[in-house]
Every structure is written in structure tokens, then in C-alpha cells.
Write a structure and sequence with these properties.
about 325 residues; alpha+beta; Phosphoribosyl-aminoimidazole Synthetase, Chain A, domain 2; 2 domains; 12 helices; 13 strands; disordered C terminus; binds adenosine-5'-diphosphate; Thiamine-monophosphate kinase
Amino acid sequence: MTGEFELIRRYFASAACARAEGAVALGIGDDCALLAPAAGQQLAVSTDTLVEGVHFPKACDAFLLGQRSLAVAASDLAAMGATPLAFTLALSLPEADDAWLAELARGLDRMARQCAMQLIGGDTTRGPLSLTLTVFGQVPTGQALLRCGARQGDLLCVGGALGDAAGALPLVLGQRQADPQLAEPLLARYWSPQPQFALGQALRGKASAALDISDGLLADCGHIARASAVRLCVEQARVPLSLPLRGFAGDSEALRCGLSGGDDYLLAFTLPPAHWPALQAEWPQVCRIGHVEAGDGVCLLDDDGRSLEPTVLGYQHF
Ligand code: ADP
Ligand code: MG
């Protein structure tokens, strides 16, 4: 490898996803990129840092890491109801390993194409392995999905089965093995989360509050509850859990993953009940898992509608 600029050129500036087109007026190579959101749109911006040993395992596959890093960052755009446009990559590397960089760039490029996002810049430095991705999207002015609009009487919904990524952790860390028909869907949910852009965009003007679940359902519902000054009630029996997760982890661990595991990057949102029939018809994978009450915090209801004490259940988020 011959220095920083050659590295940037070889792996990032020449990547298919780095072509300047659409909303990208100027891409990699100058002091700044230039982004031109459409008229009447606001720019949505979010940053995520992933540190080796904290957010991803040491010595993990570079292709999978590239793919997952962008998906995790881009999921915040989905949560705002934004349309993805572009991203930057600030990379800190202990050494420039050609094979590793090529795989990282390939994984980023794959997810960038899937998300219709372009790489428009970044920074490359020597240091402990970490990636910081800043993502840019656009959303019609005033229509972004915020965390602060949930109202008493709204339904609480999620974008699909929860807990698969958390359930996959023993597989990711090599602590357990499983049959491919169980392992593959769970590992895919960890390494290749699918930001719910279309669902987020469909919820504009309908959902009263929304976010993407990164820290676990109960913890993230707490963010909506705080921002909206309401109580979110989760009905335990309604929490959707996949068959592979139940098969691999067992029912009780599957439920723990669904309630408290993070990393799924599915949307959680509150919805005035009048919108439910049409939403359910168009998005069969969306599940109604609870409702919004006056009060504060998050409560978990058992099969008989009795409130379970989260501290008794050992959830540390409260
Ligand atoms: P400056 O010194 O002006 O900040 P750099 O020398 O760091 O610029 O980067 C040169 C160009 O390469 C810039 O356009 C920058 O955005 C881009 N760049 C640097 N690192 C990366 C990276 N890892 N991925 C994509 N683009 C990058
Ligand atoms: Mg720089």
C-alpha cells in the first residue's frame, strides 16, 4: 500500500457507490462534498461510531462488518421517515491490510446499493479499528417522524419479529453452533439488518412517534415515553418472535431477546387507532404490541393484562 491517498482512491473513491449522481452534486475528492436535497425537503443527518470489541467482535469478517455498519447507521434515517441519500466514512485503522480493506469496501458497497446511498467522503487515520458513518437523507419539510408525538389511546406497533439479532450473538461470537436452517436466518438478521425505509416513509403523516430499535424494545420504548410524556404499555404475549429464534434459544430466552436484546433495527412506533386497518392491510409484518396511556415510563403486561415489574424480571434498562 502506498499511503493514505492511494488507499482512499483504491477502495473508496473508486467504489461503485461513490459515483456522484442524483442528490450528490460533488462526491469524494474535494474539501467537502456537495449535497443538493430536493426543494421542499429537509436534510436528515445522523452519525454512528462502531468500535472493535465494543460494537463488533474482534477479527470479524470485513465484508459483513461493512454491510452491517452502513445498515445500522442508515436505520436512523428510516426511523425519521427519511429517504436515504448519502454517507461519509471516517475510518481508523491499525494497519492497511489490502484484503481486509477490499472486503470492507465490498460490504459497504453492497449495502449502499441496497439502500440507494452514495459514499461522498470520509477520513482515514491510523489508530485502533473503528468506523464512524454519517448518513444523510431527505424528508419533506415538517414531516419527519419524531419521538415526541405519542398520545394516550395510540397503539404501539413494531415493524416485525424482534430479538433475532440478540439471539444470534452466541453464534456471532462462536460460543454456540446450530443447524443452518436456524443459524442462517438469525445470523443474517445480525450481520445484514434491513433498514425499514419504505415503512418509515409510509408512516409519515400517520405515526405519532417512531424510532428504530437499537438498544432493545423496552429501553427504546422508554425514549418515546420520555419524549412524549406518556406511558407505553407492552403486552408480552403480543411481542412477535420468529420460529428460528424460538427454536434456537427456547421460548423464555427468545422473549428476553425480544424485549431487551438490541441490534434488530426494526421500527417501533405509536399510531392513532384509526390508521391501523389500512396499515395492517399494507404491512402484514407489522405487529400491534401494546398501547399508550397517561403516565410515564414503560410497563410490561402479562397474558392477563397484569403489570409485570421490570425490575423483578431483571431488565437493567430501568
Ligand atoms: P482533508 O485533508 O481535506 O480533510 P482528506 O485528505 O482527509 O481531506 O481526504 C481527501 C478526500 O477523500 C476527501 O474528499 C475525503 O472526504 C475523502 N476520504 C477520505 N477518507 C475517506 C474514506 N475512508 N472513505 C471515503 N472518502 C474518504
Ligand atoms: Mg482529512
